[in-house]
């Protein structure tokens, strides 16, 4: 008997040529969903998987802007509104030269299940541009963001689609995007999250992805009567997610010994100095060479000279970008005795790398569960912007912790129900799918 999930995967590969990241994300999810959909003919009859893998809408647009020398520049803009079965589209915007349709679609697809796992009413989307904010002046970034919003405003809205940040889109970019939206629409609404605290933002949103990643890891360790305290931790990346992963891990008593950026990586056996890291990355928008110059205990390795995964650790948190941890790195981590790997980034581990962790009983927490604290806190921000009533840091953090506990229970329970105890890849895919599938069945063929 041929498998429904396998048939749909074949169609996805045939009908979406040249989109390897999208194929990879779909292959992983459908590989898990086989357990659910192949034995229940109602799904195939409703064309559920065929609808699930096809975005409801893909917007692609031109973003013209003028640089500081007066030259006209053109970038590509995207918003993939993937699935709105359980709520309005929600997901970040990425500004990075590597952005293309395949990357946008893989991220939008992942976001469907991640958003469902939060237990909140949000559909999945992603957007962005191949614009590179690095080396651009504030004025250039502002004009680019204004041009981006001048097209995107007509496709988004508080009850339609609520974008946020991702790689290359932080508080500066969200501010410029919000300013332009407000100006065009003449209304102040929470159409973006990740806003500054002076104009409708939420405490803890900045920290939320990294904190959520560490909380979920602590839950998974606690379930095995273990804890993060005393563990040696390696982190990749040094952006928003990486910084607040380092912060919470250190608060819980772990020692974080690495961070990286696209030029190189740092090994700091004394434990990453967060004040210096924040100063270099958040204030100066500098490179990690500046960290190594200021912190005597740090060793700097330029790109091409090994990677953070060469450092022996108990826990690894990949927090930079997709496919940054391959099977060679995974095998090395396993050999060195890694206990837990949790994905702060979206799909940072390759398919083969993931298999190695699962085969070797490493606790592996996939991005759609592990980094969901960011988008969950975006929903907490939406509530506050809408009511114009703002909550304390402690209140938002408590709500985030409750959501993360719920995520752990759901993915652990789904893995147990389907007979793959401790396999959080399958657990996350199935637990994320169930609510979306229910809604799609109930809403008819749309
Ligand atoms: P930032 O832009 O703040 O930081 C990205 C970091 O990763 C930087 O250190 C960057 O180095 C490095 N990096 C990015 N792309 C590459 C690349 N191609 N090669 C090497 N290094 C790279 O982004 P975030 O911290 O927000 O995002 C990091 C990851 O977390 C992404 O996968 C994102 O999708 C995911 N994520 C983010 C959430 C959020 O709320 N921000 C929520 C959930 C997931 P450099 O500066 O040199 O480019
Ligand atoms: O990948 C992600 O979940 C994000 N970049 C955050 C999305 C959001 O809407 O807060």
From TrEMBL:
Residues holding NAD(+): 209, 240
Active site: 126
Entry keywords, A to Z: NAD, Nucleotide-binding, Oxidoreductase
PROSITE patterns in alphabetical order: GLFV_DEHYDROGENASE
Entry's Gene Ontology molecular function annotations: glutamate dehydrogenase (NADP+) activity; nucleotide binding
Domain Glutamate/phenylalanine/leucine/valine/L-tryptophan dehydrogenase C-terminal: 202-444
SMART domains hit by this protein: ELFV_dehydrog
Residues the entry annotates as binding substrate: 90, 111, 114, 165, 378
GO cellular component: cytosol
Any GO BP annotation: glutamate biosynthetic process
Site (Important for catalysis): 166
PANTHER family hit by this protein: NADP-SPECIFIC GLUTAMATE DEHYDROGENASE 1-RELATED
Subunit structure comment from the entry: Homohexamer.
Similarity annotation: Belongs to the Glu/Leu/Phe/Val dehydrogenases family.
UniProt name for this protein: Glutamate dehydrogenase
High-level lineage: Bacteria, Bacillati, Bacillota, Clostridia, Eubacteriales
């Amino acid at each position: 008997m041929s498998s429904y999930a396998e048939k749909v995967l074949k169609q996805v590969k045939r009908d979406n040529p040249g989109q390897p990241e999208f194929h990879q994300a779909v292959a992983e999810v459908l590989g898990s969903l086989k357990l659910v959909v192949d034995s229940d003919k109602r799904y195939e009859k409703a064309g559920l998987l065929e609808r699930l893998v096809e975005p409801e809408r893909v917007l692609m647009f031109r973003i013209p802007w003028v640089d500081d020398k007066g030259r006209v520049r053109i970038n590509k803009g995207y918003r993939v509104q993937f699935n709105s079965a359980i709520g309005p589209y929600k997901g970040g915007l990425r500004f990075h030269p590597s952005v293309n349709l395949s990357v946008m679609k893989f991220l939008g697809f992942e976001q469907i299940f991640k958003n469902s796992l939060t237990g909140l009413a949000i559909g999945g989307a992603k957007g962005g541009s191949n614009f590179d904010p690095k080396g651009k002046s504030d004025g250039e970034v502002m004009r680019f963001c204004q041009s981006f919003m001048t097209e995107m405003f007509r496709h988004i809205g508080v009850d339609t689609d609520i974008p946020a940040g991702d790689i290359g889109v932080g508080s500066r970019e969200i501010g410029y995007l919000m300013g332009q939206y407000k100006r065009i629409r003449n209304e102040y609404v929470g159409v973006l999250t990740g806003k500054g605290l002076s104009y409708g933002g939420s405490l803890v949103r900045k920290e939320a992805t990294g904190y959520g990643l560490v909380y979920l890891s602590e839950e998974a360790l606690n379930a095995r009567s273990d804890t993060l305290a005393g563990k040696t931790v390696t982190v990749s990346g040094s952006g928003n997610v990486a910084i607040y992963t380092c912060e919470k891990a250190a608060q819980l008593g772990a020692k974080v010994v690495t961070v990286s950026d696209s030029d190189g990586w740092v090994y700091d056996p004394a434990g990453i100095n967060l004040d210096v890291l924040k100063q270099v990355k958040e204030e100066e928008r500098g490179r990690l060479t500046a960290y190594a110059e200021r912190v005597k205990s740090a060793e700097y390795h330029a790109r091409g000279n090994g990677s953070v995964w060469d450092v022996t650790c108990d826990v690894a948190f990949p927090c930079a970008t997709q496919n940054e941890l391959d099977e060679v790195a995974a095998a090395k981590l396993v050999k060195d005795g890694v206990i837990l790997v949790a994905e702060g980034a979206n799909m940072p581990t390759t398919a083969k790398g993931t298999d190695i962790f699962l085969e070797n009983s490493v606790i592996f927490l996939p991005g759609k569960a592990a980094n969901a604290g960011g988008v969950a806190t975006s929903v907490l921000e939406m509530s506050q912007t809408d009511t114009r009533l703002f909550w304390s840091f402690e209140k938002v953090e408590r709500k985030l912790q409750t959501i993360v506990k719920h995520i752990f229970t759901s993915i652990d329970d789904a893995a147990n129900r389907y007979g793959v105890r401790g396999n959080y890849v399958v657990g996350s895919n199935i637990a994320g799918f169930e609510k979306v599938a229910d809604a799609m069945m109930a809403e008819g063929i749309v």
